[in-house]
Amino acid sequence: MTTVPINKTVKKFSLVRALRENRVAQGLFLIFPANLYLFLLIVLPLLLVTGLSFLSRGDYGQVLFIFNPANYARLFNALYGKIMLFSLAVGLGTTLLCLLIGYPMAYYLAHAPSRTRSLLLFLILLPFWTNFIIRIYAWMMILRSGGFLDSILQWAHLTTAPLGLLYSPTAVMIGMVYEFLPFMVLPLYTSLEKIENSLLEAGADLGAPPWKAFLRITLPLSVPGMIAGTILTFIPAMGMFVVSDLLGGAKTILIGNVIRNQFLTARDWPFGSAASMILMLLTMVFTLYYTRKAGFGEELLV
Amino acid sequence: MSEKKPALWLRIYTFFAYLFIYVPILVLIIFSFNSQKLNLHWQGFTLKWYDVMFHDQQILLATRNTLMIAFVSTLVATIIGTMAALAMQRYHFPFYNTSETLMYIPIVIPEVVMGISLLVFFVLIKFTLGLVTITLSHIAFNIPFVALVVRARLHGYDNAIDEAAMDLGANELTTFWRVTLPTIMPGVLSGAMLALTLSLDDYIITYFTAGPGSTTLPLRVYSMVRFVVTPEINALSTLWVLIVFVILVIGQVAQSRKA
Question: Helix or strand or coil: residue B45?
């Protein structure tokens, strides 16, 4: 009985000494909780889903341990192939629209007087500190038949009948762009703001007209911001199912909706897992391709 | 970068871009005072939806759940994330690159994939879905974001002040508590702020890891807007926007005072 506490104290002392004197031990001690946590709740679950994607569904929605690569084949049939292509189009379309709409905004922010600049940055972020579902709901109110947009248009005598934009792909695109615009604007702003004015002056001194200076100096130097913004927009846009649910109705089905349905209504977990693997593969290939072209990191830190 | 004023078209463009961002919020707020239940046209001013909301038991319960999850997950993620940031920025240890990659995974995988994988994990280990599983999941996606923000703060950290403290006889632990932590505190707080926001905002991961009786505010609002539109949701949203606005303004003012 008495030996147990002694053993314990001896062990404790050596651990304390290691932490005091050894920098490697200190580093490991600090990183250990994060590593363990992320391994258990991120890596392990992802590995389980990977395994699950090769299994079969039983008659009652249970998982059977029978190897079944057909889950993947099913994803490329006419129905799901079309959904995947459509999701890719929506993801890329959202990213492109955010880039086109966001670039001039970021440019303006980078050139605004410093006092108004921090206010404008704050104003971009403000709505996004409220809830995601609330923001989509606001668009439901605006776009629904006879809603705010229809009222305004009819009041201005621009239309006579309701547009009925809610529950259409257009509504989904509006919602997506609204949702992800700040993720594009902020990294763009960070990289545009870093460009030294002397570079543009040098360009002007050498006879470059403003448009040429923009194309040859500003645009190339803002590429890291474009890449960070594209990644931050494309990844969540590809996996989105809430916007398509609420603004797209039954007509707009994205791969995210397919995954959600397989897990919660159709109860075909192996097929849902296979769809998740493909979605992850798509976004990873995209991310890797872009980060290879130019590293990203700093622009993510806004 | 430039001191000269941006071009007129750019200023007009930006004005309309801000209009695009703010019109939905304004419509939301204005229609929370509408007396028409269908909330399609403006009928008259009323405050009754706020009264309805404050007596809605489900909303009150969901608010309590949301705040509890956000508070606990922010606290835990801030501690673990700050430790990780210190490790990554100031130490070298075996498997450094693996640890760094691990931190990026939750940021670069789509939320829906993370949601279903957590669902599979919890079901497989027979962990009952509910407040605990939601909180555990929120901690998981918050750790990397806290670490990212704190690391950015540590980037310009001057190690000389730590060395000075130790030269004066402070041990490692005292140096950490009395010198390092107070210096990086603004970074830790902005990391915690980000974690809090992400937790309050999250719908997707919460949706997959929630069980019966663990409804959060985003889940409640979602099930309300799915089929009916009532001004009660507008009232709830308005209050939410107002609270966030007050907190942010206080934060901004406090920060500018310090500077």
Answer: strand
In chain A, where does DSSP find H-type helix? 3-21, 23-38, 44-52, 70-75, 78-111, 114-125, 132-143, 148-155, 169-193, 197-205, 210-213, 219-221, 223-238, 242-248, 255-264, 269-293
Architecture of the domain delimited by A69-301: Orthogonal Bundle (1.10)
Nearest residue of B to residue A297, measured between CA atoms? B148
**Is A302 within 8 Å of chain B by CB?**
no
DSSP helix/strand/coil, B50 = helix
Nearest to B206 by CA among B140, B124, B108: B140
Which architecture does CATH list for B62-258? Orthogonal Bundle (1.10)
Interface test with A, best of B31, B117, B148 (most A CBs within 10 A): B117
User: CB distance B144–A38 less than 8 Å?
Assistant: yes
Where would I find the H helices in A40-166?
Answer: 44-52, 70-75, 78-111, 114-125, 132-143, 148-155
Give the pLDDT band of residue B244 (cuts 50, 70, 90): confident
Quote the pLDDT of residue A85: 92
- Pick B106's closest partner by Cβ from A42, A127, A241: A42
CA distance A137 to chain B (A): 7
A104-117 residue pLDDT tens: 999 999 988 888 88
Residue with tokens 């309050």: B200
> How many Å apart are CA A266 and CA A2, to the nearest integer?
60
Residue holding tokens 């980000």?
Answer: B194
Residues B138-154 have a mean pLDDT of 91
Place of tokens 């209009």: B19
Residue boundaries of the structural domains of chain A: 1-52, 69-301
Say yes or no for a CB contact (<8 Å) between B84 and A130. no
Query: What does the pLDDT read at residue A302?
Result: 40
The residue assigned the tokens 């994990």 is B121
| Among A residues 81-140, those touching chain B with beta carbons less than 8 Å apart | 101, 104-105, 107-113, 120, 122-124, 126-127, 129-140
Q: Is the ipTM of this complex over 0.85?
A: yes
Of A35, A107, A140, the CB nearest to B102: A35
A148/B27 Cβ within 8 A: yes
CA dihedral B19, A112, B156, B199 (to 10 degrees): -10
Cβ of residue A41 closer than 8 Å to a chain B Cβ: yes
Whole-angstrom Cα distance, residue B131 to residue A53?
A: 28
Q: A76-85 b/e with 16+ CB inside 10 Å = b?
A: eeeebeebbe
Among A39, A53, A101, A137, the strongest candidate for a mutation testing the B interface, having the largest count of B CBs within 10 A, is A137
